[in-house]
Amino acid sequence: MYVTLAMHRLLVPTLVALAACRGSDVRHETTTAKSAVLEDGAAAAADGSMTTSEPSADAAASSGDAADWTGPKIAALESPTPIFSATEWPAHDPSKAEDDRRGVVRLGYLRKGAVMPVKGEPEKKSNCEGGWYELLAGGYVCGKFATRDLNHKELAKAPHTPYTDGPLPYDYGLNLPNGTPMYRRAPLRKERAEYERGLQVGKTKKKPQDTAPDSAHGGGEQDGTPDDKPWFLKDHNGQRPQVTIDELRGESQLIEQRMVRGFYLGLDKEVSAFSGRMWRTTRGMFVPRDHVLVHKPKTEFEGVWMSKEGETRKLPLAWVVGVHGWKYAFDEETKRMKRTEKIARFTLAQLSGKRQQLEEYGYHETTEGFWIRDADLAITRTIPAPKDVAPDEKWIDVNLSTQTLVAFEGERPVFATIISSGRHDDKDKAKDHRTVTGTYRVYEKHVASTMEADTASDGPYKIEDVPWIMYFEGSYALHGAFWHSSFGRERSHGCVNMQPLDAKAVFAWTGPTVPAGWHGVKATDKNPGTRVIVHEDPKPKDEPKKNDAKP
């Protein structure tokens, strides 16, 4: 979902953790490493020597797990811990850099707590405190951001490693009230009483006269007007507050941010504090437990891996994407369609290829013999394979008209599913979030990263640790979406939303390959990104236009 690509040329120790699918300031993953990298960058080539190493796609795929390695290991101390292609820091301006630094790039990064196998002792250089560790998968990590002590006290603050046995890498929670504070540490009772005063959590709203003035919240009702209240204590009549992300900054050192109702958090674990039960987030913040509704993952459908042994289904495929659909039988005598029984939402149907237009409705025949109305379906419809595609080259077809995604190897379709792309609005530019069309390549992948933005039409939004992100053009990405189930209809702010289990599978299938234990990776010549073609198809004149889903 979510801005300029100038960040690729900035000396920041992370891949972009982009804010939102469309138009927003770039907001990188929290890091204390940034200033250190900038400091060391100035003296990067002090001793003139440089060693290079980076993973190829094959090497990344077979890099193995740290648990299988009996040699030395390091643990990441920062989020992010950057991985470079050489024992050097990337230049601020490659065109002005010395020859041996021009090709140095960020290959990816680790999240705090990640344990990685390394090749022996670190290479000592004056440009890196602690020396450079060469990862078994390729790439170098500066010892400033890592430790050989796997019981280092700082690692107790690290989030758990991403889950690998389910559709989502983390647990998630929905923030319930406006103004929930994100504390930088577990607060004391008196601090909670001060900073959570007036917040409505699962109780009847108090009358205005019952709400005490609160100087801690930026002043009380000094002259009796509502404008004296902070935004989160005002009555927004059930609407999303019209504030900006910057205006959500905490009013003290203890509070990082005040959240808007509807923000999603990445949850690490519950903790007991003297002030009560809290959630510690994957970013190390603390949020009151009773302010958060824990998300319960639910997989309502799955895409089809046509390459799977024993799978007989093939294109064209169709999913029921309305509240439900109907089976129809064609009456030869009356030449009309007759309803027979309901079909559940997200039911997958194999189509025969036959279609009939009767009055204002079109109908598709299934291989089981019944018919389904066009308006109830999302149907795969792909373009021909690019002329320059190699016989087994992977590429992805995203059809915005049909809201479908089909993955190919050469000319052979191997996977198909439904998606939710950006909502379009031809009349109101502020509400027009349509997905870009064109031919691209995946240039970055993140296991999970935060997306947040200010939008004129919807106000601010924030989703921590959006899963399985594959950026293919600027701030546009394929990624998992657990917060809605409007697949087969337009819904997003510009990104291509996928059901999380499908996104996880496509994330593993596409390039660049993410080595085991890495949290993000950038495409290189040795580890290239998969081609993504996003297109629209003109609708047949006799096919009624589907109604766009509301956000």
Task: Write up this protein.
This protein is mainly beta and 551 residues long. The chain folds into 4 domains: 31-157, no CATH class; 171-294, no CATH class; 316-379, SH3 type barrels (Roll), CATH 2.30.30; 394-535, L,D-transpeptidase catalytic domain-like (Beta Barrel). The protein is 6% helix and 33% strand. The chain has 4 helices and 33 strands. It has helices spanning 33-41, 57-61, 189-195, 500-509, and strands spanning 73-76, 81-84, 106-110, 115-117, 123-125, 128-134, 140-142, 146-147, 171-175, 180-183, 255-259, 264-273, 276-281, 286-288, 292-294, 304-305, 317-320, 324-331, 336-344, 348-358, 361-366, 371-373, 377-379, 394-399, 404-409, 412-420, 438-441, 444-455, 459-473, 476-480, 496-498, 520-522, 531-535. The strands form 7 sheets. Strands 2, 3, 16, 24, 25, 26, 27, 28, 29, 30, 31, 32 and 33 form a 13-stranded mixed β-sheet that branches. A 5-stranded antiparallel β-sheet has the order 14-13-12-9-15, with no helix packed on it. The radius of gyration is 26 Å and the shape is globular. The protein starts with 32 loop residues before the first helix and ends in a 16-residue tail after the last strand. Residues 1-20, 22-46, 204-215, 218-224 and 543-551 have low confidence and may be disordered.
